[in-house]
Design a protein that fits this description.
mainly alpha; 37 residues; 78% helix; globular
Length: 37
């Protein structure tokens, strides 16, 4: 799972949306929460 989150943050970073993993983490957690609900 960790690798997947890292991969997602890398993809988002390439798009210029997120610049670092600490910034990406809350966003990814929110996305995961929405996906589950």
């Amino acid at each position: 799972m960790e690798a997947l989150l890292t991969r997602l943050s890398d993809i988002l970073d390439h798009r210029g949306l997120i610049t670092s993993v600490p910034e990406a983490t809350p966003y990814l957690e929110e996305r995961r929460g929405r996906f589950r609900s």
